[in-house]
Design a protein that fits this description.
The complex is a heterodimer. Chain A contains no helices and 11 strands. By secondary structure, chain A is an all-beta fold. Chain A starts with a strand and ends with a strand. The mean pLDDT of chain A is about 95. Chain B has no helices and 11 strands. By secondary structure, chain B is mostly beta strands. In chain B, the strands form 2 sheets. In chain B, strands 2, 4, 5, 6, 9, 10 and 11 form a 7-stranded mixed beta sheet that branches. In chain B, strands 1-3-8-7 form a 4-stranded antiparallel beta sheet, with no helix packed on it. In chain B, strand 7 and strand 8 form a beta hairpin. The model of chain B has no long low-confidence stretch (mean pLDDT about 90). The chains are: A mainly beta, B mainly beta. At the A-B interface, strand 4, strand 5, strand 9 and strand 10 of A face strand 9 and strand 10 of B.
């Protein structure tokens, strides 16, 4: 059974800092990995999708990497802003039903 | 709006009530999902429908009953729920389940009293 772990559970940084969020998964037989953002009480917004054959994806100030063999992914946020404050979720697409298995998320607070 | 619409946004129901959650997508996706998000826990997959057929049921209690009448609509029928069922219920859709275009609705915040 796929398990996804995210560390840290919470992170508070001053505005302008670069930061890294970590995600690990137990079964490396994945189709892809996604990073989502969730604002309080809201649904999920997809940030980046990395296919199993890819090493990284970039969108603006966000860069996600994938090391499938070691079961790890990182989300790098450059020059953080207060508007980046949210919970960031890592999800792995695997299994015969191609379902997403989520981590518990990292709650990020960027202080002005 | 993301293209996946959930109604109602908030629902308070008693343990003896029957209610339904609705999800609608017009993205042309052929797979739809129900997830449960409880406080301090990861999102839990409840049901998967692909091409209107249920392909996954993760040991969800029978008091939750899904229905997918067509590829654009998904329902979750609720009956005799427990207070521990209070959570945010999220609907999602994707194109053929590959993860591409995985789109979530804003969720229904359910409180069982």
């Amino acid at each position: 059974k796929q398990e996804v772990t995210q560390i840290p559970a919470a992170l508070s940084v001053p505005e302008g800092e670069n930061l890294v969020l970590n995600c690990s998964f137990t079964d490396s037989a994945i189709y892809n990995l996604q990073w989502f953002r969730q604002d309080p009480g809201k649904g999920l917004t997809s940030l980046l999708l990395i296919q199993s054959s890819q090493r990284e994806q970039t969108s603006g100030r966000l860069n996600a990497s994938l090391d499938k063999s070691s079961g790890r992914s990182t989300l790098y946020i450059a020059a953080s802003q207060p508007g980046d404050s949210a919970t960031y979720l890592c999800a792995v697409n695997s299994g015969s039903a191609r379902q997403l298995t989520f981590g518990s998320g990292t709650q990020l607070t960027v202080l002005p | 709006e993301t293209g996946v619409t959930q109604t109602p946004r908030h629902l308070v129901m008693g343990m003896t009530n029957k209610k339904s959650l609705k999800c609608e997508q017009h993205l042309g996706h052929n797979a739809m999902y129900w997830y449960k998000q409880s406080a301090k826990k990861p999102l839990e997959l409840m049901f998967v429908y692909s091409l209107e057929e249920r392909v996954e049921n993760n040991s969800v209690p029978s008091r939750f009953s899904p229905e997918c009448p067509n590829s654009s609509h998904l329902f979750l029928h609720l009956h005799t729920l427990q207070p521990e069922d209070s959570a945010l219920y999220l609907c999602a859709s994707s194109q053929d389940g590959t993860g591409r275009g995985y789109t979530f609705g804003s969720g229904t915040r359910l409180t069982v009293v």
